Backbone:
């Protein structure tokens, strides 16, 4: 039978999976009406068999499943793993290891950004996934054979998808890239919910320190209440209400009841009392103990063209390497790189720096140029010779002067006035003479 509903069946299944090189894993859960995700079904596929595990079955002991997730000798393969990992972190107090996320692997291998499982199953496993049951209420019992077949398809084809992607990573030498991504994905701190940090979910940019103090206390109270009652935080109090109350900062039940987001009944009840206590704590907090409200940093003047060029370079590098742009750098990352060579962004670390970051810094400092090809159909990069008094001159690359009509900077040849080697904001944009205005 495809569905495991007893501890004995689960124990036997776990024993059969001992020594497996990898298992494919997926979960079905519900969280529309709860704070914590409610695990409704777990699908696991080994090399020879696949089963659905019913965590809602009366009396079932999930320890064998937990043991499998903790088994460092068996790779756990997921697709778009973050929500699944959140569930297992809650269940285990730790994260499954080692891990392979096929969505991330596909982005590294050139399948685009956040590619869906159906696409990968079609392209790599030649399988068609029926998603007509994706909105099923998986907490309802009994589950039909159609439900179980649908659920199992999420792991049976995942085995083939994994094998194909693993082979591609081995062939293109990017297995190390994925290892970096999996290390970040299995950072336990990103799955821990601290009520004291709940305010960061709210739009508080530009608020005063005093309002921020109130938001911090109210958001922490709401988070603790949502966790304790297992309710979505918006059911406890909507974001707009948190901000309204923080701005108005009422001190009495009467003034709290006058806030647009509160009814008199709420203000006079337990919620009202606890809200006023939270605001009292906020007023008692020294302002110098508060975190700074997040502010959008104003970019130095003149960086706009540099950012635009970095976007072009990112597109070129990612298309050439067959890697999703989103995986390498965001627009915010490019802004920070344009403003600061030592920006703490992923694009300047690890494999991303090798793929894009070094070239981005070279472009920014005039050691690399973007040029339109002679046929006018694409953009290409050119090394640029930088004069001795420029920054990092000892590391400058040299232009290939054999390319006729290519503009250079510094000591390079003069090939035609403003059309070649035009410099703006420290970035050299080489334009072929043939394409320049006469």
Residues:
């Amino acid at each position: 039978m495809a569905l495991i509903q007893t501890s004995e069946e689960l124990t036997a299944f776990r024993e059969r999976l001992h020594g497996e090189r990898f298992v494919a894993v997926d979960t079905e859960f519900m969280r529309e009406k709860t704070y914590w995700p409610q695990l409704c079904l777990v699908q696991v596929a080994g090399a020879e068999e696949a089963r659905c595990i019913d965590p809602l079955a009366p009396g079932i002991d999930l320890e064998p499943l937990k043991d499998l997730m903790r088994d460092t000798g068996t790779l756990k393969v997921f697709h778009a793993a973050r929500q699944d990992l959140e569930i297992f972190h809650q269940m285990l107090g730790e994260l499954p290891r080692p891990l392979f996320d096929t969505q991330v692997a596909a982005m590294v291998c050139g399948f685009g950004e956040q590619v869906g499982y159906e696409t990968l199953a079609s392209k790599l496993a030649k399988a068609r996934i029926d998603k007509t049951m994706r909105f099923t209420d998986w907490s309802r019992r009994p589950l039909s054979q159609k439900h179980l077949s649908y659920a199992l398809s999420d792991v049976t084809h995942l085995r083939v998808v994994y094998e194909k992607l693993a082979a591609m990573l081995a062939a293109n030498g990017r297995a190390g890239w994925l290892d970096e991504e999996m290390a970040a994905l299995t950072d336990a701190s990103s799955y821990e919910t601290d009520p004291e940090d709940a305010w960061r979910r709210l739009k508080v940019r530009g608020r005063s320190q005093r309002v921020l103090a109130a938001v911090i206390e109210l958001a922490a109270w709401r988070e603790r209440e949502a966790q304790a009652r297992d309710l979505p935080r918006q059911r406890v109090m909507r974001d707009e209400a948190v901000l309204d109350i923080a701005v108005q900062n009422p001190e009495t039940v009467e003034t709290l009841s006058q806030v647009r987001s509160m009814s008199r009944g709420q203000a006079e009840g337990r919620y009202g009392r606890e809200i006023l206590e939270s605001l009292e704590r906020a007023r008692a907090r020294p302002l110098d103990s508060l975190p700074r409200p997040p502010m959008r940093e104003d970019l130095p003047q003149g960086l706009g063209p540099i950012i635009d060029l970095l976007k072009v370079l990112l597109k070129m590098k990612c298309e050439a390497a067959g890697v999703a742009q989103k995986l390498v750098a965001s627009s915010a990352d490019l802004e920070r790189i344009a403003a600061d060579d030592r920006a703490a962004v992923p694009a300047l670390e690890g494999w991303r720096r090798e793929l894009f970051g070094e070239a981005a810094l070279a472009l920014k400092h005039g050691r690399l140029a973007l040029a339109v090809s002679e046929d006018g159909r694409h953009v290409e990069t050119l090394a640029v010779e930088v004069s001795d008094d420029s920054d990092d001159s000892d590391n400058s690359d040299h232009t290939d002067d054999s390319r006729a009509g290519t503009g250079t900077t510094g000591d390079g040849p003069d090939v035609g006035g403003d059309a070649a080697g035009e410099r703006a904001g420290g970035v050299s944009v080489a334009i072929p003479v043939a394409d320049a205005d006469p």
Summary: The CA atoms of residues 8 and 166 lie 34 Å apart.
